[in-house]
Amino acid sequence: MNKRKWWSWAVSGILIMLVSMMAFADTENRDPREAVEAELDKKFQDGRYSRDGTETCLRCHDKDSEIPATGIFDNVHGRLGVSHGPMSDRQCEACHGPLGNHHRNPRGDNVREPMITFGDDSPVPASKQNSVCLSCHQGSAQRNWHSSVHAFEDVSCSSCHKLHQAEDPMFNQATQVETCTGCHSQVKAQLHKRSSHPIRDGVMSCSSCHEPHQSVNEASLKQVDINENCYQCHAEKRGPFLWEHEPVSEDCSYCHNPHGSINSAMLDKRMPQLCQDCHRVPHAQVDIPEGDLRVRGGSCMNCHSQVHGTNHPRGLTLRK
């Protein structure tokens, strides 16, 4: 045999063997979720939907099953009269994908053909889970979802919304706060401080100020900036005033912590320390001797009572 040809065959054989070993190693190290995701993609391509729809699903997923699904009939997603809802289309399979052989259990050992599931344990990534929801929910509230903080953090819709319950926890003020603070633990601590908005009392909820489906505005606020958000309730602070306090007109959060504080009026610091962050003593702006009880024992607001602004002709020093 020609020596050169033999060498070429030998190199080719080694390369084939290496490629096979790499492919085998890739299969061995492959994330099981990726395999399930690929299988679900194939099921969508095949499109083997059930003829009986919900009737097939409820044979196993009744109210007494390990994974009940009957609660959906008590909310908008399960009502047959809703023309644009999933029940008017492919019913359960409108969200969970084609049934295929899932209900027949052909694999044995109680291992069923996968369906699209939702939540942290789902083999489907959050972006694909959310694409199912966004195929219907394309209104103004969701138009900026893809640029939101929750989308960037791979938070799925089902992390907050529960569709197989009679009442979605996000539409109840008490359970909405509980759901949000499950992740935002620092805010939860602030809500329990001495001075806070009436959120724990059920008068307000997180969505009173924030729009979780978009982040065009700072901190996903409903209004364009912090002040405009505050003015929705505190309209008397809006102005315009003849004499304005510059930090007030710029940003309410310079002085207030909107989620709660140990100080009155949700102030970041007690008076007069808060004022002295800008108006230092001794300072040319504040002609008060050190140790003066008007500052130490009381508050700057004993005299400067209109710190949010005033229209009084002599209100240059923000007095009445």
From TrEMBL:
Domain of life: Bacteria
Every Doubled CXXCH motif domain range: 198-238, 245-280
InterPro entries with a match to the protein in the record: Cytochrom_c_NrfB-like_dom, Decahaem_cyt-c_DmsE, Multihaem_cyt_sf, Multiheme_Cytochr_ET, Paired_CXXCH_1
Keywords assigned: Membrane, Signal, Transmembrane, Transmembrane helix
Residues annotated as transmembrane: 6-25
Gene Ontology MF term list: oxidoreductase activity
Pfam families (UniProt xref): Cytochrom_c_NrfB-like, Paired_CXXCH_1
Ranges for domain Cytochrome c-type protein NrfB-like: 92-172
NCBIfam families (alphabetical): decahem_SO, paired_CXXCH_1
Cross-referenced PANTHER family: DISSIMILATORY SULFITE REDUCTASE SIRA, SURFACE LOCALIZED DECAHEME CYTOCHROME C LIPOPROTEIN
Protein name, per record: Cystathionine beta-synthase
Organism encoding this protein: Photobacterium gaetbulicola
